[in-house]
Write a structure and sequence with these properties.
The protein is α/β, with parallel strands linked by helices and 215 residues long. It is 46% helix and 10% strand. The chain folds into 2 domains: 1-83, Helicase, Ruva Protein, domain 3 (Orthogonal Bundle), CATH 1.10.8; 84-215, Rossmann fold. Strands 2-1-3-4 form a 4-stranded parallel beta sheet. Strand 1 (88-93), helix 4 and strand 2 form a beta-alpha-beta unit. The longest helix has 22 residues, at 192-213.
Length: 215
């Protein structure tokens, strides 16, 4: 489906001209890597994927461009069109609102840029867990730029390591990748005290993973 076919689709709040403008910006960014049809498809898929769970439509524009850019980058990496200069780690939980988000932010902070990290949800929620945001803020780590994202095949293909957290068999299995399943309590509905325990457990696991990836 291209952007001209979106007329009549329920719930799409932005005009097709707006989505086309986003696609145009990304076409320049990925010139020589993807054609305009692929870019348009990714922008529309990213927009509609986020629209299903977004509660704050004012952020939908910036989130769409961020999500589409990340997916296209992942696809280019998987195809070898963009070089991967650091290990790629993907964290997946069910809602992408707690465990996987904490793991991603902690990995980015502790690796100091020596690992590139993504996170996603097999059934993404609408917002980040407030207790998770508060628990991370206690470590001086902001999650204001983070948001739940649906799991897509491109980010799995681009990953060197895929860490799942209670999301079953949602991830496709590709040869040559490292898969781990971390048994962690879902922080949904838990108190801040309980979330701190999960946070610290995740930090310990992330430190062990980085020790292996970054000798």
């Amino acid at each position: 489906m291209d952007l001209t076919e979106r007329r009549g689709m329920p719930g799409l709040a932005y005009p097709e001209e707006y989505l086309r403008r986003l696609a145009g910006d990304l076409t320049e960014k990925f010139a020589g890597v993807f054609n305009s049809e692929t870019i348009e498809r990714y922008v529309l898929e990213s927009y509609t994927g986020l629209l299903r769970t977004s509660t704050v439509r004012t952020h939908l524009a910036s989130r769409t461009i961020h999500f589409a850019t990340d997916r296209l980058t992942a696809l280019a990496q998987a195809k070898g069109a963009i070089e991967r200069t650091v290990p790629e780690v993907l964290f997946v939980c069910e809602q992408n609102a707690g465990r996987s988000q904490m793991a991603a932010v902690l990995t980015a902070q502790l690796s100091q840029g020596r690992v590139h990290v993504r996170s996603a949800g097999s059934a993404p929620g609408k917002d980040l867990n407030p207790a998770v945001v508060e628990a991370m803020a206690e470590l001086g780590l902001s999650m204001t730029e983070e948001f739940p994202k649906p799991l897509t095949d491109d980010v799995v293909q681009a990953a060197d390591v895929v860490v799942t957290m209670g999301c079953g068999d949602a991830c496709a299995i590709y040869p040559g990748k490292r898969y781990e399943d971390w048994e962690l309590t879902d922080p949904a509905g838990l108190s801040l005290v309980e979330v701190r325990v999960i946070r610290d457990d995740i930090r310990t696991r992330v430190e062990a993973l980085l020790a292996e990836l970054l000798p």
